[in-house]
């Protein structure tokens, strides 16, 4: 008996592994990418480079994590660029007034407030579709960005480390807790919290249910409105955290610094496998999506491609990712 | 009397069958339509009328049988081809582009051939005048009345030089005056030699201006006869009578105290509805499609906006402004269209089932997934849902099993008042019996049920009382033990 | 947009937008009476510049109008415009005869439009993201080609293409713009294709059942949008005598919003050349007025702020109108 079943069990788990990889091609992509690059460019494997990867990861991932819930619910948030800019300038300018800690808290509060404002506008308008949310949040992006500009008169605000050597920003940028950098710890905590919300809590469940079938969810008593408030609040808050990390990295706050992150965040979410139309996804997938993007950037850098080509490639990846996702959806529904 | 048999048939349908997964929509249907004759088709919901029309126009493809139009056999066609052939259908959901003008709609897709802006409007004007319609061709379709919209559709049909015009429930949104106008146009078309198929629920219309009528039931043609040879009762009997294959559990007893009183609901469609549901009873609600039955329960449940609403639960007035409110009060609504309004396709069976009771499974904000699985298993067993496991994605289940899972969602709530809107539609005979048993158990345990169904035998055998709704108003109440199917259906057809 | 399928009435009617423009003009006239708020708004120089700047965007807006009426959207027009300007100048500087260079760049626009159309329509992918991605690709390509430095024209003749003032006053560019607007108007109003665009956007299923080749019609709108964006880029390069690869950044959403302000709905089925024209002029005049008024601390931020507020308000009203008409809560 056992001799006959032993090889069977081995085959079964390979089959399961293959199916898993087929359904989640992103792992394959990351693996291939990592392998190819480390062969072609040995510099890839240096700790310096890996460190670099993790640092870049830091800003993108917060914005992308926040965006994930919004997209899972079948909406979208185009205002994160404006929010990041606004939070960054507010935080940095407030340091001299109230000190670092409180300044950061104010910044987070601003991000949260922006997110809630987005949600309130969407709810009062009765917007139920992604397209409506799209334009409303885009408009708000302009508003937040303009406020950032007005607040600073267009002048870049520099992070000056005051008398004390202990700077929170410095710590975020280069400090470490044990073997991990501070920002890595922040990321892991955020991921743990969001993942718990997503998988285990009622409100987390409402997010993906809202994206799945709003009519059915509503009829079953799911609180759609509360869900919308939550997703945009989280998006705003996460953007704010990303802004603080960004300001720490570049030691300045420029009133337009948030702009490129919006498309990056959407890319990371979509590439990670979360469906753009909502109803399916996970913050965990987004982590891998962001990782793939950063790896790609890194490889292209090491291989000598110009930053413009990298920029272009983002567009290409975006198109391909959506195209593949759509093709998959079409195949399923047939 | 009409000399229908003298001339060759304009349209000949022989032994046409069409099956969809799980249901035979048409079973060897045969009938003949002649030019210059108004041929009525009547039947209950689900009799197969619209399936037949969609096959004629090319939206569906028949499985077998032969269709001949003007002597030519038609194998497969498309909506455009059939229009060009001279076979026009005017659907209930009008086939017009709301954002474009009347003239453009008449010649949709044929703009240049019809002479551009000037030509299109001139020709449309001529066509509309020929049927006595004065609507301005430059007006947007969204701005004109339903009656005028139908005129535009007729004009469109005429612009194709149609020989056969099929009208699907045209009068549902017309006033009496508008109806008179339509009848006159039908007579004019008839005089021109055009054949007309007139599908309707309104027996008065059939008797009023149809020459011949075909009665359909359960995908069969029961009979085709000149209108003069039938009485109203004959027709109802043919539509409704059927061999009862299903068995029903013994009719549950009824307690008596009113638990739910709808004192007053008014919406766009509902005129002034009053209804009382007693504790432990099954109240059947019978009405035609469009009578307001679904609107009534949706308004009750807080799913639709209402102009005016007054509900008493256990004698106390309650506010129900959203489905959440309703659920919190112990009401459950199993929607009619379970695919659109019930299924979360990307999710597992157990997630779909536990959807409505998620709050119950939540403690301190956290969902207990073990209990979720238990809930799923419980309902899967109770309703005999065929699925490999609770974790299977619901989209891989068959339609009937999907229905059952959604039903399980609501049953899990142990509601005080359960509203079932066509609960056994699309479900096989064996499963139906299981559902009837469950219904009986629910009322035995103290719940109350409002049962909306188009299957009269089901309503008659399961209900303690039956109310009929017609044209947005409750117009009758019957004791099914005493009243007959015919009586009840007659009330459902009784447009004031 | 895959998610909006009900047609909605336009929020701001033609009349209201036109009135708004009138009000701004009157306000500026009033402001000119007082020293504190006097400005160069009505100077010939400003008006001509305003006309030229608006002309470029108007050319793009006409293309976008086709897309929006058919219920699609093209966000790659910014990148297309920037890339076109860059490429045409590089070709001309390299000695390619001006007409040939222009033809090649327009062909490029056709190609890009074809790709957009294919993926969005035939592959049924969400046009918002696809064209957004394409815009990124085009911008990146432009940057790669120029190493992110602006390109200047080495052939002075090229500048006269846009800037030569007919009758001493009217720049050719403006005439080109009017031609494009006129042709758009004519096509949308009087041709079968134009009517089909409205039908496809108004009710896809009905249009399909009426025999209209819905996919081909929708794909064609993307072709038109890209080619016109290309033309706009060429004209811009001529007007400024230089081209920058990042000139297209805020453009697409600005143009879409201007078109919506003018009376096209995001939900498709309505809109038109004149409406888009008025919408864009309104935004252009507003922005210009604020620039001219030169209110110190607010100068460059107020237009953006205003634009954001206008966009949010318009779309909010659009959604709210639909909410009120809905039966379900």
Quick recap of the structure?
With about 325 residues, chain A is mostly helical. Chain A has helices spanning about 1-25, 25-40, 45-70, 80-100, 100-125, 130-150, 170-175, 180-200, 200-210, 215-220, 225-250, 260-270, 285-300, 305-334; strands spanning about 155-160, 175, 180, 250-255.
Describe this structure in words.
The complex is a heterotrimer of chains A (334), B (496) and C (329). A two-stranded antiparallel ribbon of chain A has the order 1-4. Chain A has a two-stranded antiparallel sheet with strand order 2-3. Chain A has helices spanning 2-23, 25-40, 47-72, 80-98, 100-125, 130-152, 168-174, 182-200, 202-212, 214-219, 224-250, 261-272, 283-302, 307-333; strands at residues 157-158, 176-177, 180-181, 252-253. Chain A contains 14 helices and four strands. Chain A is mostly helical and 334 residues long. Chain A starts with a helix and ends with a helix. Chain B has 496 residues and is of the alpha/beta class. Chain B folds into three domains: 11-240, 3-Layer(aba) Sandwich (Rossmann fold), CATH 3.40.50; 244-330 and 416-496, P-loop containing nucleotide triphosphate hydrolases (Rossmann fold), CATH 3.40.50; 338-414, no CATH class. Chain B has helices spanning 49-57, 79-85, 102-106, 116-130, 146-159, 176-191, 203-209, 232-240, 293-301, 323-328, 338-342, 349-353, 369-383, 399-411, 429-444, 456-462, 485-492, and strands spanning 11-20, 23-33, 38-43, 64-69, 72-74, 87-90, 164-168, 195-199, 212-217, 220-226, 258-266, 273-278, 282-286, 308-313, 316-318, 331-334, 362-363, 366-367, 417-421, 448-452, 465-470, 473-478. In chain B, strands 6-7-8-3-9-10 form a six-stranded mixed β-sheet, sandwiched between helices. In chain B, helix 8 crosses helix 17 and helix 13 (369-383) crosses helix 14 (399-411). The radius of gyration of chain B is 25 Å and the shape is globular. Chain C is mainly alpha-helical and 329 residues long. Helices cover 71% and strands 2% of the residues of chain C. Chain C has helices spanning 14-31, 44-69, 77-93, 98-122, 127-146, 156-163, 172-190, 192-202, 204-209, 214-240, 251-262, 273-293, 301-325, and strands at residues 151-152, 165-166, 170-171, 242-243. In chain C, strand 2 and strand 3 (170-171) form a beta hairpin. The two termini of chain C are 23 Å apart. Chains in contact: A-B, A-C, B-C. At the A-C interface, helix 5, helix 6, helix 12 and helix 14 of A face helix 5, helix 11 and helix 13 of C.
């Amino acid at each position: 008996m056992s001799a006959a079943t032993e090889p069977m069990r081995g085959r079964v788990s390979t089959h399961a592994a293959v199916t898993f990889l087929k359904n989640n091609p992103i792992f394959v992509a990351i693996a291939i990418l990592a392998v190819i690059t480390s062969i072609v460019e040995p510099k890839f494997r240096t700790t310096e480079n890996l460190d670099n990867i993790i640092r870049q990861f830091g800003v993108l991932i917060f914005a992308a994590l926040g965006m994930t819930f919004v997209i899972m619910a079948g909406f979208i948030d185009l205002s994160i660029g404006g929010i990041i800019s606004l939070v960054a300038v507010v935080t940095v300018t407030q340091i001299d007034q109230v000190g670092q800690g409180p300044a950061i808290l104010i910044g987070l509060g601003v991000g949260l407030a922006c997110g809630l404002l987005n949600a309130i506008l969407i709810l009062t308008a009765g917007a139920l579709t992604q397209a409506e949310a799209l334009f409303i949040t885009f408009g708000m992006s302009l508003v937040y960005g303009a406020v950032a500009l007005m607040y600073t008169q267009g002048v870049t605000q520099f992070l000056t480390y005051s008398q004390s050597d202990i700077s929170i920003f410095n710590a975020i940028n280069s400090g470490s807790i044990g073997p991990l950098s501070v920002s890595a710890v922040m990321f892991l905590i955020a991921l743990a919290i969001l993942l718990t919300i997503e998988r285990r809590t009622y409100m987390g469940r409402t997010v993906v249910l809202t994206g799945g079938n709003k009519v059915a969810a509503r009829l079953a008593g799911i609180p759609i409105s509360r869900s919308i408030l939550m997703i945009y609040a989280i998006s705003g808050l996460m953007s704010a955290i990303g802004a603080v990390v960004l300001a720490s990295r570049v030691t300045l706050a420029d009133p337009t610094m948030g702009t490129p992150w919006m498309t990056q965040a959407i890319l990371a979410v979509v590439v990670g496998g979360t469906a753009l139309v909502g109803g399916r996804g996970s913050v965990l997938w987004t982590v891998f999506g962001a990782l793939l993007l950063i790896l790609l950037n890194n490889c292209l850098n090491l291989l000598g491609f110009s930053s413009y080509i990298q920029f272009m490639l983002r567009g290409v990846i975006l198109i391909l990712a959506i195209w593949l996702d759509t093709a998959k959806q079409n195949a399923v529904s047939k | 009397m009409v000399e229908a048999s003298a001339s060759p048939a304009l349209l000949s349908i022989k032994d046409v069958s069409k099956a969809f997964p799980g249901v035979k929509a048409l079973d060897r249907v045969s009938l003949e339509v002649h030019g210059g004759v108004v041929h009525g088709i009547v039947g209950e919901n689900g009799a197969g009328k619209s399936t037949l029309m969609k096959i004629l126009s090319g939206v569906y493809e028949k499985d077998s049988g032969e269709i001949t139009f003007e002597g030519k056999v038609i194998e497969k066609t498309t909506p455009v081809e059939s229009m060009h052939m001279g076979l026009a259908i005017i659907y209930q959901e009008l086939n017009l582009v709301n954002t474009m003008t009347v003239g453009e709609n008449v010649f949709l897709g044929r703009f240049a051939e019809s002479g551009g802006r000037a030509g299109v409007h001139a020709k449309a004007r001529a066509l509309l005048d020929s049927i006595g319609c004065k609507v301005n061709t430059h007006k947007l379709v969204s701005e004109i009345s339903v009656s005028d919209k139908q005129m535009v559709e007729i004009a469109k049909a005429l612009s194709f030089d149609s020989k056969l015009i099929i009208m699907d429930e045209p009068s549902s949104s017309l006033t009496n005056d508008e109806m008179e106008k339509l009848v006159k146009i039908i007579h004019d078309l008839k005089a021109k030699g055009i054949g007309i198929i007139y599908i309707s629920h309104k027996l008065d219309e059939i008797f009023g201006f149809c020459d011949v009528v075909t009665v359909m039931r359960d995908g069969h043609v029961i009979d085709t006869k000149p209108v003069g040879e039938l009485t109203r009762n004959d027709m109802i009997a043919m539509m409704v009578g059927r061999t009862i294959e299903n068995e029903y559990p013994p009719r549950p007893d009824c307690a008596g105290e009113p638990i739910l009183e709808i004192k007053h609901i008014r919406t766009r469609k509902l005129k002034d509805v009053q209804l009382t549901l007693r504790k432990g009873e099954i109240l059947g609600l019978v009405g035609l499609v469009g009578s307001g039955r679904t609107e009534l329960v949706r308004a009750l449940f807080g799913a639709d906006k209402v102009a005016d609403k007054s509900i008493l639960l256990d004698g106390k007035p309650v506010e129900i402004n959203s489905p959440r409110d309703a659920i919190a009060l112990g009401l459950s609504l199993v929607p009619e269209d379970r695919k659109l309004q019930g299924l979360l396709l990307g999710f597992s069976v157990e997630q779909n089932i536990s959807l409505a009771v998620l709050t119950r499974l939540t403690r301190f904000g956290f969902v207990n997934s073990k209990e979720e699985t238990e809930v799923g298993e419980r309902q899967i067993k109770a309703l005999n849902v065929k699925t490999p496991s609770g974790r299977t994605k619901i989209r891989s289940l068959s339609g009937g099993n999907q229905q059952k899972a959604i039903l399980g969602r609501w049953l899990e709530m142990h509601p005080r008042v359960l509203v079932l809107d066509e609960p056994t539609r699309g479900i096989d005979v064996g499963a139906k019996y299981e559902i009837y048993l469950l219904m009986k158990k629910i009322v035995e345990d103290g719940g109350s049920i409002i049962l909306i169904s188009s299957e009269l035998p089901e309503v008659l055998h399961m209900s303690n009382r039956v109310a009929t709704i017609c044209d947005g108003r409750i117009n009758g109440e019957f004791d099914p033990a005493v009243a007959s199917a015919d009586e009840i259906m007659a009330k459902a057809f009784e447009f004031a | 947009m895959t998610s909006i399928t009900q047609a909605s009435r336009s929020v701001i009617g033609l009349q209201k937008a036109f009135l708004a423009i009138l009000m701004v003009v009157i306000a500026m006239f009033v402001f000119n009476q007082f020293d504190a708020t006097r400005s160069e708004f009505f100077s010939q120089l400003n008006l001509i510049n305003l006309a030229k700047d608006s002309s470029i965007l108007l050319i793009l807006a006409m293309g976008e109008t086709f897309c929006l009426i058919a219920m699609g959207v093209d966000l790659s027009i910014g990148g297309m415009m920037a890339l076109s300007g860059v490429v045409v100048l590089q070709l001309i500087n390299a000695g390619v005869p001006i007409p040939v260079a222009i033809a090649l760049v327009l062909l490029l626009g056709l190609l890009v439009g074809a790709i957009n159309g294919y993926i969005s329509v035939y592959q049924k992918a969400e046009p918002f993201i696809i064209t957004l991605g394409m815009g990124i690709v085009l911008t990146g390509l432009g940057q790669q080609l120029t190493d992110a430095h602006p390109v200047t024209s080495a052939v002075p003749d090229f500048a006269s293409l846009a800037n030569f003032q007919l009758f001493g006053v009217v720049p050719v560019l403006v005439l080109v713009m009017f031609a494009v607007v006129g042709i758009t108007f004519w096509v949308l109003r009087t041709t079968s294709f134009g009517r089909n665009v409205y039908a496809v956007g108004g009710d896809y299923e009905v249009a399909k059942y009426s025999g209209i080749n819905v996919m081909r019609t929708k794909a064609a709108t993307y072709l038109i949008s890209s080619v016109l964006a290309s033309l706009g880029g060429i004209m811009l390069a001529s007007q400024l005598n230089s081209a920058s690869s990042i000139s297209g950044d805020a453009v697409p959403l600005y143009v879409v919003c201007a078109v919506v302000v003018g009376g096209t709905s995001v939900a498709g089925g309505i809109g038109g050349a004149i409406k888009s024209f008025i919408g864009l002029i309104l935004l252009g005049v507003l922005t210009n007025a604020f620039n001219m008024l030169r209110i110190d601390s607010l100068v460059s931020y107020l237009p953006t702020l205003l634009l954001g507020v206008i966009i949010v308000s318009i779309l909010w009203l659009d959604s709210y109108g639909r909410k009120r008409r809905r039966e379900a809560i």
